Amino acid sequence: MSRWCVVPISLAAILDKRGSVALVPSNKPKWDKKIKKYRTENNNPLKFDQLQLSQGPGVTDDDYKNIQNKCDSLKNISSYAENFETALNQSELWCSEKLSFAG
Question: Domain of life of the organism in this record (predicted)?
Fold first, then answer.
């Protein structure tokens, strides 16, 4: 069993330290990519429990709402919670993007 720290730290702060940032709701092209990838990864252990997405080729408004609600629910998980590491990995995979730094 792993713990991140004694002092609670937000999921967003850890993502930031890892060079990632949460996707903003208005960035539909990036959400489209996440949703389409999510649909194809049937055996991925980091898929959310009970996330309902449409099965068609397109992405619906409900798809955006449902995945964004799941992502929003992860923000409230404290760093000392039993499922924090899973939530962090889910957030990094399905709810955020790596920042690219110009060098």
Answer: Bacteria
Domain assignment present for residue 32? The answer is yes
95 by Cβ neighbours in 10 Å (0-12 / 13-18 / 19+) ranks as buried
Question: Residue 45: inside a domain, yes or no?
Answer: no
CA-nearest of 100, 94, 101 to 23 is 94
Report yes or no on 70 lying in a domain: yes
Per-residue pLDDT of the chain (103 residues; tens, 9 = 90+): 555 556 778 888 888 899 999 999 999 999 999 999 999 998 999 999 999 999 888 999 999 999 999 999 998 788 888 899 999 999 999 999 998 764 4
